[in-house]
Structure formats: C-alpha cells, structure tokens
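Weekly structure sync, notes
Attendees: PL (lead), two postdocs, one rotation student
Agenda item 3: pending single-chain targets
PL asked that the sequence for the first pending target be pasted directly into the notes so everyone works from the same version. It is reproduced below exactly as submitted, 264 residues in total.
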Amino acid sequence: MTARGRALAIGCLAALLTLVAVADLEGQRRRGRGGGGFGDDLAAYQEYNTPYTGEFTFVRLYYRTGGWGWNPGWSHDWPTAERNFGEIMDALTTIGPRRGGGNVLAMDDPDLFKFPVAYLSEPGDWGLNEAEAENLSNYLRKGGFLIIDDMGGERDLRWTGEVLNLLLPGLELVELDVSHPIFDSFFHLEQHNIEMPHPYRGGVASYWGVFEDNDPDGRLMVIVNHDNDIGDYMEWSDRGFVPIALSNEAYKLGVNYVVYALTR
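Predicted structure, written out during the meeting:
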C-alpha cells in the first residue's frame, strides 16, 4: 500500500471505529470513562493484563501520583486509547498487535523487558524511586523505547527533562524536527502533519527526544510529545468529540513510533 493509500485507510478506519464493538463496553463503564476508575490501585488495573505471548502489546507505565484520586494522570485514556490504537495497527501493518487493550506495568517490573515500547501519560506528576529508575534506565539502554505524552507548558517540559536526566544521566533532551526518521518510518509526515494542537490546552505541538550517546544520528530512546496528547485523540476518535482529521494525525504518529522502535 502506498503512503497515500495508508493515509486514506487510516481516515476511514478512525471513522469506522464508531461502528465496531471491539471491547467490553459495560466493563469500561464499570472501570470509569476511558481513564482511571481504580485510582492508584495497580493490582486492579493489572487484572485486565494478558500473559506474554510474543505479540506486540501496548504497555502503559504506572507511577504513584499522590493525590489524583480515582483518575490518576498516568491512567488517562485507558483502556480506550490502546484498544482503538490496536485496531488501527492491526488493520494497517503486519505487526500483529494484541487487540482489545494493553497491559499496565510498574516501572520496576522485570516483565517490562518483554515489551519493546512503553507509554507514559502526564509526566508533570511523574516521580521515581531508586528501583523504578534503575529498571526503567536499564530497559531504555537495552533497546526499549519510551513514548511520553499528554503534557504542555514549560513547567511540564522542564520537569520531564529533569526526571529523564535521573534515568539517563548526561543524555540531553533535544527538540526534533520533521526530518528525523521517526516521522518517516511508516507514514511520511510533513510539518503540517505534526503541528497539531493539544486537544484541550491548545498550543502547537513540538517533539523532543533523548538519543543514545547523545548522537542525533543514533538510536532515539525516548520521544516526548510536548503540547500534544495523542492518547486523547485516540480515545475520543470513535466518539466524535475531536476532529477526525486530528485523530488521524495522532494515529499516524503512534504507528510511526512503534514501527521506528521495532526496526531500530
């Protein structure tokens, strides 16, 4: 399929998600509206995890928030975003992802090493203890890839940089432009594709990364979506609450991130 064909297909699929029952909707209502529902009770979320089978599985990282109540920032858009994203990846790629959702793991969980891509939501309240920092740092240095999403403003970006410096001392957080290979790993994205606003904070999205050995031509280990929230766009793509055109761009970014991580 050509790049144009893939772009047309993703638009059709995002629209058709409204017509496809791909999850236990009653279970979603019991858990809460597309995010949270169990507060910081990690074990409750993990009841919906599936055993490792070798297929690509979306992994969301848990962290202690200290006061978000029933809907902590790390859980925002769970489980709907990963459910919808899995449908898109299954339809457009040969990755063969797990459909119907994803797994939630703590940052110090040794099972993290079974999964090549991890996702972290709302890093403005992100904190680490020593065990979490050691495990996540080893995961990234040994080939894991981290997507950081749903953030905005200088304070969030500064705090994210500080935490990443604890994980990966000496490695710099640098701004990426559209020429980076991650924006051409599956969909060929132009500047207008990536300059999308955060769905409720506004602003123009920018993208930041951490490279292995600070080499801009080397492996990208972390990507940060600043002033963006692709998780929100994915969660609401089947509800009509966000423009389909912007959900399409969010899916393109997500697919590119996964393909980049699996091929580098």
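Discussion points:
- Confidence is low (pLDDT under 50) at residues 15-33.
- The first strand starts at residue 59 and ends at 62.
Action: rotation student to compare against the earlier draft before next sync.
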